Amino acid sequence: MNIFDKLVVLSLPFAPKALVKKFAGRYIAGETLEEMLDTVRQLNGQGIMATIDLLGEFIHQPSEARQAAGVYKSILEAIARERLDANISVKLTQMGLLLDKTLCYEIMDELVSTAAKLRIFVRIDMEDSACTTDTIALYMKLRRQYDNVGIVLQAYLRRTLQDARLIMKDLDKIQSKGNFRLCKGIYVEPRPLAWKDHALINKNFTFILEEMFKQQAYVGIATHNEALVWEALRLIDQYRLKKDEYEFQMLLGVDPELRNLLLDGGHRLRLYVPFGKDWFAYCTRRLKENPSIARHILKNLFTPSHIQRTP
Ligand SMILES: Cc1cc2nc3c(=O)[nH]c(=O)nc-3n(C[C@H](O)[C@H](O)[C@H](O)COP(=O)(O)OP(=O)(O)OC[C@H]3O[C@@H](n4cnc5c(N)ncnc54)[C@H](O)[C@@H]3O)c2cc1C
Questions:
Q1: pTM score of the predicted model
Q2: 291: confidence class by pLDDT, cuts 50, 70, 90
Q3: Domain 31-301, what fold?
Q4: Catalytic one among 125, 143, 259, 270?
Q5: Which of 1, 63, 82, 178 lies 20 to 30 Å (CA to CA) from residue 72?
């Protein structure tokens, strides 16, 4: 990121919320359950699957974790009621991981069990490296009981190849295959824990993806990077995978052209659909990753509305 983009990103928290929403609205599916369901219905109509994320990560009280789990249960019921092609993505910190691990497990156990009865899959998102070990441990505990749960691994972490191998070895013992989402990773991690070089992260992504395919794991290939999409397509071809043995995953609002290219190629595609009242922090994070959009916002802050152009 150049200095100008850094300045733009630093100024974002001071931008009026309404303005951020106008430009970043494409990354979120609204604030309410109904708005989100509307987005999912539209995506399903275009042959795109969804994974639904209730925004809001860090909580301070156990009651907030129970409340968030309650909203997820309403989402599960709505998916089943409307027969939507969707599952849910859950962050363990939102379910109390940093407050009380036992509570977090109890909440997740109930949520995954409810989802299992409705035949819906639960994806556990991966957060910053302080949560990695606990997230994997809790996932494995749940996975020994339920088939409908999977985890996310991040290619930028130096430990991930080993984690993937250990998880797959463990699953082998219960005659199961892994179900992963593989992404680069979104948090700022220190160099001893994570690769910093983009080319190396891409290499590691491809290396881990191949390890997963070798073990016949189902992988949600989560990237908007065309070089990585190309590597994934090469491996899909090499391992002669059928269309239902993997899927591509993208974030709502990011690169619709790539999305269409993948759909036109006949690949399964799932969009990450975040919604909820905590949209501001999420949008700011998206904008930080794509400062060209943030630049539009800043430009519009200082440009009279009659000469503004729609992006
Ligand atoms: C479905 C899905 C789920 C994810 N879940 C997790 C998770 O659980 N934990 C985690 O740490 N990370 C998660 N991520 C984020 C991921 O780790 C990356 O940070 C993000 O996808 C950017 O990496 P990239 O592979 O798309 O490639 P990049 O090379 O970083 O991006 C390629 C291009 O896509 C555009 N782009 C990429 N990301 C964004 C964005 N967010 N907003 C606007 N434009 C963008 C940019 O224009 C960029 O040039 C998820 C990503 C996806 C797609």
A1: 0.90
A2: low
A3: TIM Barrel (3.20.20)
A4: 125
A5: 178
